[in-house]
Every structure is written in C-alpha cells, then in structure tokens.
Design brief:
4-stranded antiparallel β-sheet; DNA-binding; homodimer; disordered N terminus
Chain lengths: 243, 243
DNA sequence: CGACGGTTTGACTAGGCTCAAAGATCGTGG
DNA sequence: CCACGATCTTTGAGCCTAGTCAAACCGTCG
C-alpha cells in the first residue's frame, strides 16, 4: 500500500459508487463537480437533528458519521454508520423530517448530492445505495436481537471491513476504525465495560489485532463462518468484489 | 364499532395510503384496479426468500407479513412487519435481490403495486411509505439495542397500534394481534419464556389486557411516556392523526 | 506537570436464558 | 358433540451473560 500518495478527498467515495454501478462520463463528471464544492464538518457536529426538516441530500466524501438515537434518560444507540461514498439524508419527497440525528464521528467532508436524473448510472447507484442502507439496518437488527456480545463484535467488524473495501480503505482484513470503545458499545447494545472484555478475549483468541486506531481481522472468512455472518447483497449483477 | 359491516379487503390499505398523502382520482383508481386482481397467500407461505430476485413490488391489502432472518443454527429474528397498506419488495432498480425472507404471518391478500408514475400523489405516498419503513427499522434497532424486556414489549405494541390506527384497524388502544408469543419473542430478541413472564407482569400492572388475539393498551399515551416511545414521523405535513 | 479522554480491572448484581414439564386452546374429524 | 392432536401458553428451578459501580491506569496535549 502506497501510504503517502496524495489522494483527492473524494476518491474513496468515487470508488465506492463505482462499485455499485459502473459510472458513465456524465455521472463521474457530476460527482467531480459536486465534490469541488465540498464542505467540512468537524468531529461531533450534527449534520441534522431528529425531527428537523431534511434540507437536501449529501454525499459523504471523507470521514465517518452515525445516526444516533438518544433516549430521554441518556441511553444512546448508534443506529447506523455513514462511510465514504454513502448517501446522507436522501429522501424522495418534500417535507421530509429526519427520523434520527446524524452526527460526525470524525472530521467529515461532504458535498451536495448530484441530481440523479443527470445519468441513469447515478440513478441506479443511488437506488442500490439505499437498498444497501436498508440491508445494513436489517443486519443490525439481527445482530442486536439474536447475537451474543462476541458475535456482535465480529459480525460488526466484518460489515465495516466489507464496506470499506470497495472504497479502497481496507485490505487483508485491516482498516482504520476511528471509533472509541464507548461508541462501538453504543452501536452494539452493550456496556463499554463488557465490550472491552469481549474485545480483549477476541485478541487473546488471536481473532484480531487492535493497535491504536487500526484493526486487523486475521481471518475474515473464517470469522464470517464462525459467527454466521453473510455479506450484504442487494443486487444480482455487478458481483461485489470477492464474492 | 360496527363489527359486521362488509368491508372490501383493500379498504384498510387504501385508508393507510390516504393518510400518507391525499390520493387524487387517478391514484385511487389505480389502486382500485390493482386490488381487483388481488392474490391470496396462505399463512406461513413465503412471498420471497433471502437472496432471490425480487419480482415486482406488491401492496399488502390484508393480513400481516414479516421479514425474517434465520441464522445457520436456527435462531430467528423477525426484522420487520408488513401491515395492510404497506409496500412489499419495492425496489427502484433492476436485478434487486431480497435481503431477507418475507413470510406471511396470517393469510394475506396482496396485489401488484400500481405504477407510481400514474399520479404524483402515488409517487409521494410510496416515497413516504419507504421512509416510514426505514423509521420503523431504526426504532427497532433502538428497541433491541437499548430497551429492556418490558420496554421492548410496550414500545413494540405502541408501534403496532400507531400503524394500525390509520388503517382503521385499531381504536382506543385496542387491536387484533395475530402473533404468537413465540413470534413476538423472535421480534423482540427475547426467549418465549421471558416474553411470557414480561407479558404477565404487564397485565398484572394493569398496563394491558390480552384476550385471545385482542390486545388493549389501557393508556397508550402514558405508556409512551413511560418507555420513552416516540411516534415515527417522517413528514412535516399532513400531520399524522393524533399528533 | 496536570487534566482530559479513553481503556482496563475488580467485585458484585441482576436480567434474561435454559431445560423441562404441565396446562390451555383450538381446529378437525369421528 | 365430543375426543384427539397440534399448537400455544404458563410455571418452576437453576444458571450464566452482561450490567453496575468504582477505581486505577495510560497516553497525549497544553
């Protein structure tokens, strides 16, 4: 991996969309154009709040976001994650309101979503992206409903890995994870303490390495079998890489 | 309640769609026409299976369906429910594959989904319906991740109540629930045994009555406050009834 | 150095799970 | 109309996973 290459901030997003549906000239140009007028959002900022009107849709170019549900008594649930190339706030009707708060987990770069009508390839890529969002939600429901702490952790890391791969942000089971253990616990419906113990056990078992912000799953395929993880798949053709 | 009135099987669905976006003439006509060629699916049948191609979208006219995720070792998760007026398998791109199995929980009547292009009102109603589906998934994630057994149960029943109300299938906290305790347990990520105990406690507390297939939430508003439940809301205008 | 955000540890508790069996309920057919 | 089987609900006893509370540790940034 050539780590020091200067990459345009929208490259990962571009690669991800490309992997959903091959982008034709107009599609690629539209994204380039949109990315030129990108906006920076700092860590912990909220893009929009639950119940607020949604003002236009965005494309996430860099960084991680999360949908967060907060209960009256302070309990928190991270409902879903936005990774580079994901669509944020993409609603197809007027007067839409956010059903959860969207927060930046890291510093984030976003741009306005190009009009899908500009290219059939874009229309298709966006539709597939939405379907994937739903598939990830479904996977998360199953994770929280029926997996134990260890299974939740591994299944979750596998999902992140599989989502970062098409962006070029993960390779050989290794990727950067900018999440605190507390955030992961809030995503997995566990307490930070218990998540920490679960993590340590996974390390002791040799399933993964976790140094600073970098995770390595030593054998993603074996791990997937072990916890019954299946890769999200919403489309018959273009086969996801590695399928 | 006039219990013996003969109602057309698609009336509940019609009412629900109407509540999402006022239907104009062409929209209502299109639904009537589609409903004329309805199809019956018996209990326990599967409309489509995880990983299969999705062949067209359907409108659920009568009965309940569920998306079911089954783990290799037999654990089951009911991911979401389809109630009258809900859209099933509505994907907006070719080659879509189901990300979970859709099963009929009761005998079910469905019809093909009219082409949304027939009317802007239809387009809008379908888009809102999709957004609601997502909101229900988000609510379910939060339920499973951060609520305890009692809260899960009440929060879940409140959601069903609020969804059945616009169909005219619920009133004054009362509705028919065609689910076994096992199914509810599989939805709420609990064991049937524990769900049963939780239910009994709720009855003893006077929170609800459960006779045969009929549930009554004695005070939905109070219950909502008690468990921190908030009604799903994806659109600024037409205000949902009771808001 | 001290403060801060994050991770790790320990000791104890409790909510929910397991296994197993007994009771209800309901549809069906004799 | 009752008997039967299947399905669903209820109960009991013991266990275990994950939660709670509290404190120590660690790195890093000012």
């Amino acid at each position: 991996m050539t780590a020091t290459v200067l990459t345009a901030p929208h490259l990962a997003a571009m690669r991800r969309l490309q992997s959903l549906s091959p982008l034709d000239g107009p599609a690629a140009a539209a994204i380039e154009r949109a990315a030129d007028r990108s906006r920076r959002v700092e860590r912990r900022a909220e893009a929009f709040r639950e119940g607020q009107d949604v003002h236009g849709a965005f494309l996430l170019l860099e960084g991680w976001t999360a949908r967060i549900r907060q209960l009256p008594d302070g309990r928190r649930q991270l409902v879903s994650f936005g990774l580079p190339g994901d669509l944020l706030g993409y609603c197809q009707f007027d007067g839409a309101r956010a059903s959860s708060t969207m927060a930046a987990l890291t510093a984030v770069t976003i741009c306005h979503l190009p009009d899908p009508a500009l290219s059939p390839a874009l229309t298709r890529a966006f539709a597939i992206s939405r379907a994937l969002d739903e598939a990830y939600l479904i996977a998360h429901v199953t994770r929280l409903g029926r997996l134990n702490a260890h299974e939740r952790l591994i299944d979750f890391l596998l999902e992140l890995y599989e989502r970062l791969e098409p962006c070029g942000l993960a390779e050989a089971g290794r990727f950067l994870i900018p999440l605190t253990q507390e955030a992961i616990a809030d995503a997995l419906g566990l307490t930070p303490v218990h998540l920490n113990r679960t993590l340590q056990e996974a390390r002791r078992n040799g399933e993964l390495t976790w140094t600073g912000r970098e995770v390595t799953l030593h054998d993603p395929n074996a791990a997937a079998v072990a916890v019954g993880h299946t890769r999200a798949r919403v489309c018959a053709f273009p086969a996801p890489s590695g399928a």
